């Protein structure tokens, strides 16, 4: 028997990524329920999505009517218990294995549909570590979106030793055909494909700044003008979030024990100082 088409999605977290994932699902005509820890965070998440939808309208990507319809499809809750009827849940909270594991264990108790897909947007935590916190690891998968989600067309699909073929097919079909993303598959190794390549590069750029090799402005200018990257590594670290880059590096270091994944002291100090990038207004650069 084939599974029902996914029409009810739950997104956990309405930070940069959760908001983006919720937005693209709502724009794809799917009913979306978003969990945030508090009403205030939920309101901030909704405002973030509305700003992005407004941007979609002003750049001609969507019509005003599509913006309104997407907004109607989005509901918010601070009670994970409301996720009982979800057919797909995408977890997008802070890159912390303990926090994510607790959420997966809770979801396992809540989501009633035996066909439901439980996905994580983690950047680096092996999906098996999350799967084993549930009684249904065969239904747990990685769906790794890219920032900003409405703009970047990629989703990495990460299957574990236990993910079933039916779940893999259902998740791939949703990301590809419903959301219109391009899907690549990765083995369940910390960092998957993109971050295994990207994060050593970002950390190298931070080490260059730290050692006085070149200024942050020149490093960014060099990669934009010399490699045709849309933005340089320090601006990109600011966009991703220095806290997230550090957590990804820690997770990859734990898995591979390679010095190239070890977080440089400048990154550690900036995270300790709360200078975690664009989302707080200051990282390597300042943002209005
Ligand atoms: N919603 C809808 N559309 C948006 C948008 C949003 N939130 N943000 C930007 N856009 C659209 C704009 O409308 C614009 O579209 P057109 O070109 O058709 O007009 C386009 O995206 C570019 O936007 P801007 O012109 O405003 O800005 P820009 O040209 O400076 O691009 C950027 C900004 C999209 C962030 C671009 O610099 C970029 O792609 N940077 C690289 C981002 C990247 O590498 N992301 C991956 C990070 S790693 C990751 O995500 C994985 C992980 O686990 C850490
Ligand atoms: P963010 O800082 O913007 O948002 C973090 C979210 O986690 C918020 O919704 C916050 O309320 C929630 N949160 C924090 N502590 C929590 C707790 N104890 N319990 C429940 N929720 C909690 O981070 P983000 O950039 O949206 O990243 C979220 C996830 O997406 C991470 O796993 C990250 O690795 C991954 N990711 C990030 C990027 C990126 O470029 N930032 C790209 C792809 C994937």
From TrEMBL:
InterPro entries: 3-OHacyl-CoA_DH, 3-OHacyl-CoA_DH_NAD-bd, 3HC_DH_C, 6-PGluconate_DH-like_C_sf, 6PGD_dom2, NAD(P)-bd_dom_sf. Residues 191-287 form the 3-hydroxyacyl-CoA dehydrogenase C-terminal domain. Coiled coil: none annotated. Keywords: Oxidoreductase. Residues 9-188 form the 3-hydroxyacyl-CoA dehydrogenase NAD binding domain. Pathway: Lipid metabolism; butanoate metabolism. Pfam families: 3HCDH, 3HCDH_N. SUPFAM superfamilies: 6-phosphogluconate dehydrogenase C-terminal domain-like, NAD(P)-binding Rossmann-fold domains. Belongs to the 3-hydroxyacyl-CoA dehydrogenase family. This is 3-hydroxybutyryl-CoA dehydrogenase. It comes from Rhodococcus gannanensis.
